[in-house]
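Task: sequence design from structure.
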């Protein structure tokens, strides 16, 4: 059986700021925006090509614990860690992020690939890989 990735869910501290951040930095466009009373949360779907992000902004969000803000310490905590995107030009992406003031958390070469982690405006880690 084959599975197709549809979306990744991310809780954010400020929905409007997150919508702007993901549009400006990762070219995601808003496709759905609703408040779900049963969750007490605003839920938005963003799309870039065939992939979607589902953002949640609860009425009383809790910030990320300190150990979840650094890639290597976050990996030690059980649970889903991050979403990763393959990119064709890491240097161009990094230049865009620097120009936009994006928080670059970690850069490394792994198995001859360029890898970069950034934090979104809520501190959520996102990974980018340029395969060589």
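Answer:
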């Amino acid at each position: 059986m084959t599975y197709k990735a549809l979306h990744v869910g991310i809780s954010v501290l400020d929905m409007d700021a997150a919508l702007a951040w993901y549009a400006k930095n990762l070219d995601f466009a808003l496709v759905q925006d609703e408040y779900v009373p049963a969750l007490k949360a605003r839920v938005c779907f963003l799309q870039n090509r065939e992939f979607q992000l589902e953002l949640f902004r609860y009425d009383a969000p809790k910030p990320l614990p300190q150990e979840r803000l650094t890639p290597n310490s976050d990996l030690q905590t059980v649970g889903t860690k991050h979403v990763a995107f393959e990119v064709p030009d890491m240097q161009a992406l990094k230049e865009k992020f620097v120009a936009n003031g994006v928080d670059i958390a970690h850069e490394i070469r792994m198995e001859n690939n360029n890898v970069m982690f950034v934090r979104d405006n809520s501190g959520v880690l996102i990974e980018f890989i340029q395969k060589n």
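The mean pLDDT is 94.
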